[in-house]
Design a protein that fits this description.
7-stranded mixed beta sheet; 35% helix; 2 domains; Nucleotidyltransferase, domain 5; 22 strands; alpha/beta; globular
Length: 496
Amino acid sequence: MKYLLALDQGTTSSRAILFSLEGRPVAMAQREFRQLYPRPGWVEHDPLEIWESQLGVAQEALRQAGVEAKEVVALGLTNQRETTLVFERGTGRPLYNAIVWQDRRTASLCQELKAQGLEPLFRERTGLLLDPYFSGTKLAWLLANVPGLRERARRGEVLFGTVDTWLLYRLTGGRVHATDPSNASRTLLFNLHTLSWDEELLGILGIPPAMLPEVRPSDGEFGATLPELFGAPIPIRGVLGDQQAALFGQAALAAGQGKCTYGTGAFLLLNTGERPVPSPKGLLSTVAWSVRGKVSYALEGSVFMAGAVVGWLQGLGLIRESAEVEALAREVEDSGGVYLVPAFTGLGAPYWDPYARGAILGLTRGTSRAHLARAALEGVAFQVLDVVRAMEGEAGLSLKELRVDGGMAQNALFLEIQADLLGVPVLRSRVTETTALGAAWMAGVGAGVLGLEAVREAWTLEARFLPRLSPSRREALHQDWRRAVERALGWAREEG
């Protein structure tokens, strides 16, 4: 037998999944690691814990399956994307903790850059907003605050990387300092048009180019693992950021195909084909992947509250555990005119209002627990609809279907509601680990054992949810939702 090994390095845990060439999971191992909060708004990881946990689960997955390294055709790597590391060239010694994508310490720097009128330049070149979320300002902070780092970086003694780069460096014993375009395009430093590091942006942020990894195709040659790690070298032939890997794992390979991952929030990606799409509505334009010599782009939009809304219902005592929400919501035919806007932490695309707050409208004496539960599910589905409509308008594409994964994708009623509101089929894949599967498939393509057509054919459907609402009913519901959102916007803004 031949296998593909996927390393899935996430924000709270490291996972490894061994797949057959057909995309069937054979063995999985997972290990959590510490979250470090040295100050309010700061989030860090220990780089050595990331490495040790990821190596440990990879070894464990092979052990579980009784598979030797020589039976693994290729290794694919996917990762939390914007987290930022600096380490010593030669030794690989970390020079600071990894600054996690959630970290907000560079908010003031982002504000300064905006005040200088630089956001349009960054947006046009990188497709991203000036936000602490991305790696570039985190790296600028490290260079300004770690004693001696800037001087050492100028001398070429210090390397920068996102988590994929860090793991590649360790897996290959320092032979490879590289990334792929999907990760590079999340740094605020990578030009979407030239597909290279942007010298002007590097200059603005004071980042020495010598620190930066080489950008190789997502299906490129990334060296091989040290023989002593797994008993024999394993070729590394695929690298993708986690959301792009989920898009590839859903086989959404053509323009107009999209996926949504429903976790705490919801991440939507729409494949826009061979051109980056600018977004006035605050969506992110990003590289999806570079494969077989062609670059594909995507629009990305986030919904802040998805599974977290069900958690909120649980906290209120309306349900004891999240799995109960479907049965409760099925007790009623509809929400009885109730709208729940889950703007608990503001609203993202296309509204971008940090002052919006949660609201429940349309309550009557007849409103029950079941109506609230159903309105909560609809509130998530409406937010996804808003992002999809913004994406379609900006890309000039119509979404044909939505492929879904993540925790809420197990809720059949929710997916029925999502299909009704979108007006297109919603498809749930058989393999739920789509992020890891995408990394494995990319490695298979890189190793030449899979073609893109084989990836399309290997994707398997578990369930299809078809829209049942008439277009006029769908539009009427959406109009009422927008009325509800209008009432939630700006709620927390101080007067005067």
